[in-house]
Specification:
Length: 327
């Protein structure tokens, strides 16, 4: 099966991005043909600093490598370096109803958050995402819960194109992780953890031990002190238990037993140490890869070539079916 997924270079990657997306990618690359993209064009839809964007893009490549994506097996590349993404996005614009875009949850949330910079790109974001996925004749899209709605729209757009112009696109399936599809903010357990919220709301994959300890100890919890999983009544502690479970491999029941009669402070201290240890190899590998810029750029260049071959072949077919001249 062919797998496609991507991450925006909008800020520092956090454990939500890791548990929701990257962890699945690492499992999937063993038995599938995987295409992993850094979706830089998507990142331009919200305010950003052009001076730091290149650095953030390269950092994401390093994250992919440091977290276990194998460039010998998987294709790693940057979206803007394969121009077919923008071309297909434009063509798909012409068959996507405006109403479908306006009802997207991410658009509703981000248009409120970035009221002063409400550009058309924010509304059209899911079309570019559909182009990303459909260009590669993708079977499976592993993402966190927040992106499920966009993948569903990509399916709708693909079906519509196939009906109108003739079969070109595979209809992709979404794949959510069994647990960790929606890790919540440390400061507000009613909101998902997000890179563009303040750093105190997330644990970055490369956070230093002291930052991890401070952020976990300050994480918002609920009244009471019993370490018990209850998503409705104790969403803060439930979120921390989920994180503990996913990094330790222990079940929720085992964690509740381990911290029986011990209180929140002790649980948080133990979670902080677990994260410090679990993220140690990310910090180490990142430091090592930062000194190997030539190697990282070579991986990107190889990945771009491999991605282009697939993307160009799909685009030839799309142009033909839509009545455009071949290139
Ligand atoms: N809190 C989360 N829990 C689980 N999975 C998550 N993902 C994001 N947040 C969580 C998954 O991470 C992948 C990459 O996301 P993205 O870069 O496309 O941006 P996003 O979904 O909008 O994530 P952020 O961190 O909230 O970024 P910003 O702040 O830039 O919008 C996706 O698979 C996503 O589902």
């Amino acid at each position: 099966m062919r797998v496609f997924s991507g991450i925006q270079p909008t800020g520092k990657l956090h454990i939500g991005n890791y548990l929701g997306a990257i962890k699945q990618w690492i499992e999937l690359q063993e038995k599938n043909e995987c295409v992993f993209c850094i979706v830089d064009l998507h990142a331009l839809t919200v305010p950003y600093d052009p001076k730091t964007l290149q650095e953030l893009i390269l950092e994401k490549v390093i994250v992919y490598l440091a977290s276990g994506i194998n460039p010998e097996k998987s294709i790693i590349f940057v979206q803007s370096s394969v121009k077919e993404h923008s071309e297909l996005a434009w063509l798909l614009n012409t068959i996507t109803p405006l109403g479908d875009l306006a009802r997207m949850t991410q658009y509703k949330e981000k248009s409120k958050k970035f009221e002063k910079n409400l550009n058309a790109g924010l509304l059209n974001y899911p079309i570019l995402m559909a182009a990303d996925i459909l260009l590669y004749q993708t079977d499976l899209v592993p993402v966190g819960e927040d992106q499920k709605q966009h993948v569903e729209l990509a399916r709708t757009i693909a079906r519509k194109f196939n009906q109108k112009f003739g079969e070109v696109f595979k209809i992709p399936e979404v794949r959510l992780p069994k647990a960790g599809a929606r890790i919540m903010s440390l400061q507000n357990p009613a909101k998902k953890m997000s890179k563009t919220d303040g750093p105190e709301s997330y644990i970055g994959l490369f956070d230093e031990p002291e930052e991890i300890r401070t952020k976990i100890m300050r994480a918002v919890t609920d009244t009471g002190k019993i370490v018990k999983y209850n998503e409705k009544l104790k969403p803060g502690i439930a979120n921390l238990i989920t994180i503990y479970s996913l990094f330790s491999g222990k079940s929720i029941k085992e964690i509740e037993r381990k911290f029986k009669g011990k209180g929140y402070a002790e649980f948080k201290k133990s979670l902080a140490e677990l994260l410090v240890d679990s993220l140690e190899s990310f910090r180490r590998k990142k430091k090592e890869l930062l000194t190997r810029e030539v190697y990282v750029k070579e991986i990107l260049s190889q990945g771009t070539k491999r991605a282009q071959v697939i993307a160009q072949s799909t685009m030839q077919e799309v142009r033909k079916k839509m009545g455009l001249l071949p290139h």
